[in-house]
Amino acid sequence: MILWTIRILVLAASPIISYYTISGSVRGILIGFAVALLIIGIELAISLIPLDTIVAAVLGAMLGLIGAKLLDYMVYLMNNQHIYEWMKQYSILIKVVLAYLGLVLAVTKKSELDLLDQDILKKRKKGTRSNDVVILDTSAIIDGRVTDIVQTKFLSGTLVTPRFVLRELQGLADSSDAHKRNRARRGLDVVAQLQKEESVSVKIFDKDYPNLNEVDAKILQLSKDLDAKILTTDFNLNKVASLHGVTVLNINDLSNSLKPVYLPGEKMPVFVVKDGKEHNQGIGYLDDGTMVVVEDGRKAVGKRIEVIVNSILQTSSGRMIFTHTLDGQQIKEGRESREGKY
């Protein structure tokens, strides 16, 4: 309310001041009114620009002007009258161009300053590269297991959450689909929880790539620019990033590598929860979510039994264990013994 009062006073005072100081005519009133509108327009435009962007723009323009002055001094020291006269003739233009370049570079590159904190500088001085920087993609954030990995101290360095990933999460959080909405809100909670962890530094990175439409493509490009790794659970992003030579930390691969190892012929306990697709087949799950297919297991639905491992199918998206029941083994052995008699 106070700002609008000041703006109205400026609109009222400018034509009056202009009337008495310029021409004392209607032309002076119009000039004053136009100047007041211009001032208010500039003020409104500046209020929409973030403070860090304004500071970066001012510093960039100042550095550009300093560069122009140094260039002018260097030409003066060259003691070449022809070049000096040429520089003097276009001095204003050169200052404007360098100030503009400094302003634009400062504004476009200011987001990358977020990574130049003391921790990263210390690591680079020790000889490590920016591989200590890990970019979180949307799937890894929604998955949520990254917080468990961080808490166990197996993941350190700087976790970068791009602003465009947060925008995607926010869009999903406003979705009409309840499942997507709940998962996205959980992802936002995961980011907030990571920011409280002391073992890692979490940075919100503002750099965007307007020429790229897909979030995965933006993450891939950002990882190249920062020479960073990507933390994901997305199978397709994993493959594409590998083709581009980008290191990928796949949470599913990590989870699979930590699962109990069962070899063919070994016994294992499993709770059979439902019928399988094939005849007389049962399906169970281990505590880590691994699917166990039990031949002759339909009769054991709702029970915990011991089974014998036949084979294991391992993929980046998960692991499946194919087994058969002890009764099935006994039946098979009895059949083989009878066939041997004949």
What does this structure look like?
The chain is an alpha/beta fold and 342 residues long. It has three domains: 2-111, no CATH class; 116-256, 5'-nuclease (Rossmann fold, 3-Layer(aba) Sandwich), CATH 3.40.50.1010; 267-341, OB fold (Dihydrolipoamide Acetyltransferase, E2P). The protein is built from 14 helices and ten strands. It has helices at residues 2-23, 26-47, 51-78, 81-89, 91-109, 118-125, 138-143, 145-151, 163-173, 178-195, 215-226, 235-243, 251-257, 326-341, and strands spanning 133-136, 157-162, 200-205, 229-232, 248-250, 267-275, 281-285, 291-295, 304-315, 318-325. The protein has a five-stranded parallel β-sheet, with helices on both faces. Strands 6-7-8-10-9 form a five-stranded mixed β-barrel. Helix 3 (51-78) packs antiparallel against helix 4 and helix 9 (163-173) runs antiparallel to helix 10 (178-195). The radius of gyration is 33 Å and the shape is elongated.
What is the gist of this entry?
With 342 residues, the chain is an alpha/beta fold.
Count of helical regions: 14
Number of domains: 3
Tell me, what's the shape? elongated
Spatially, the strands of the biggest sheet line up as: 3-2-1-4-5
CATH architecture of the largest domain: 3-Layer(aba) Sandwich
* Span between termini: 102 Å
Helix content: 55-70%
Number of strands: 10
Task: Specify the CATH class of the largest domain.
Answer: Alpha Beta
Structural Rg: 33 Å
Strand count, sense and closure of the main sheet?
Answer: 5 strands, parallel
The CATH superfamily of the largest domain is identified as 5'-nuclease
- Structural class based on helices, strands and sheet pairing: alpha/beta
- Overall pLDDT: 81
SSE series: HHHHHHEHHEHHEHEHEHEEEEEH
